[in-house]
From TrEMBL:
Listed Pfam families: CBS
Domain CBS: 328-391
Keywords: CBS domain, Repeat
Keyword Isomerase part of the UniProt annotation: no
Name under which the protein is recorded: CBS domain-containing protein
Organism, scientific name: Linum tenue
UniProt superkingdom: Eukaryota
Gene3D superfamilies per UniProt: CBS-domain
Coiled-coil ranges per UniProt: none
GO annotation, cellular component aspect: cytoplasm; nucleus
């Protein structure tokens, strides 16, 4: 176990994180689309309405509904009744679309060890709700509080110079039942935040980051695929969970291997023209969908996509134009891939630079032949199960 996981706490990752703004389940899909543009992992937590000014962590946990992502929204808008009345569809309450799963978020104390937080995420937690306290802001720096199993500094409260808190590892707050903290301000940590933190600690994880993903066992062979000739809407019927992605494939050879040509995923649809993508999802084959769907990653986060739909042919391949002044189709959008011999560090860098939740893995000697996928969960499992001195850097 790398020492970086033992000597850091969750509070070290919260520096600079913005305060959580809750998206209530009564908000509309249109509002959710705006919020998702500023989210991580292409999704946003959804909450029941708060009924009291003061609430315990247990009540707050009960208010959490689930995480809504861009694929959920596009799949909903692709329903025939939504295509028939798009204005009404955009005003649909989020509660009718979000998949309810109360276990995807957990509140933790800022002093929770990073290793304990990683174990939660390995068990399926995708967001950590962390209180933003003034006291923690004063000392939340790398190795400032917890090192070699001991607290090195005293935590001084803002109102008293004598009230200090000294703890050792055995007295750390329990991750299963965080204490009630007198604050109503929180920030939300995602798995992307953890991976970004780990990128800054590659030396402490050596030689794991430079080892190949195949030697580390990080490649997940269980993934969802849809044949390019099938309707694109069938990808949503597979209910991909983690990652929220379906590979679009073509038969590669007689041995049953597949060649990946694209994907239908929350990452790819993160900043798309939602109504345009919904029409394409409902009317095109999976191959046609991925050959032209516009991910629109360069759209400013603060701007809402143009929801107008122009159903006129553009004369170029029989495709359809969406939105005022821009086409949803712009040629093939290749999936993000790596090779089985790619290093773990390279895959992590790919995920962070492209802001995606996963990278598809292809064979080293055959172009685009799909063998698996590496997602956030796979990386977290890999870096915590391999002792640093047990991995050969030359593997």
């Amino acid at each position: 176990m790398a020492s970086v996981f033992l000597y850091h706490v969750v509070g070290d990752l919260t520096v600079g994180k913005p305060e959580l703004v809750e998206l209530c389940e009564t908000e509309t899909i249109e509002t959710a689309i705006r919020a998702i543009g500023d989210s991580t992992e292409c999704g946003i937590p959804v909450w029941k309405r708060r009924l009291s000014l003061i609430e315990t962590s247990e009540i707050r946990q009960q208010r959490f509904v689930g995480i809504l992502n861009s694929l959920d929204i596009v799949a909903f808008l692709a329903r025939q009744e939504c295509l028939d009345d798009q204005d009404r569809a955009m005003k649909t309450p989020v509660s009718e679309v979000v998949v309810q799963n109360n276990s995807l978020l957990k509140q933790v104390d800022p002093a929770t060890r990073l290793i304990d937080a990683l174990e939660m995420m390995k068990q399926g937690v995708r967001r950590l709700l962390v209180p933003k306290t003034k006291g923690w802001k004063r000392v939340s720096k790398r190795f400032s509080m917890f090192y070699n199993g001991r607290w090195l500094k005293s935590l001084e409260t803002p109102n008293s110079s004598t009230n200090t808190l000294t703890m050792n590892a055995s007295n750390l707050p329990s991750s299963s039942s965080p204490p009630t903290i007198p604050t109503d301000k929180f920030c939300c940590l995602s798995r992307e935040d953890v991976i970004r933190f780990l990128i800054g600690c590659l030396g402490a994880l050596a030689p794991i980051p430079l080892s190949s993903i195949s030697s580390l066992g990080a490649i997940n062979p269980n993934y969802s695929v849809v044949d390019s000739s099938l309707p694109a809407i069938e990808a949503t019927q597979m209910s991909p969970d983690d990652p929220s992605a379906v590979a679009v494939v073509e038969p590669g050879s007689s041995d049953g291997r597949h060649k990946i040509i694209g994907e239908i995923s929350a990452s790819r649809l993160w900043k798309c023209d939602y109504l345009g993508a919904a029409w394409a999802l409902a009317n095109l084959s999976a191959g046609q969908f991925v050959m032209g769907v516009e991910d629109n990653h360069h759209t400013p986060r603060s701007s809402l996509p143009d929801f107008s739909v122009d159903l006129s042919s553009n004369g170029g391949g029989g495709y359809t134009s969406f939105g005022a002044g821009r086409s949803m189709y712009r040629g093939r959008s290749a999936p993000l891939t790596c090779k089985v011999k790619s290093s773990l560090a390279a895959v992590m860098a790919q995920m962070l630079s492209h802001r995606v939740t996963h990278v598809w893995v292809t064979e080293d000697d055959t172009e685009d032949v799909l063998v698996g996928v590496v997602g956030y969960a796979d990386i977290l499992a890999t870096v915590t199960k391999h002792p640093a001195n047990a991995v050969l850097s030359g593997s």
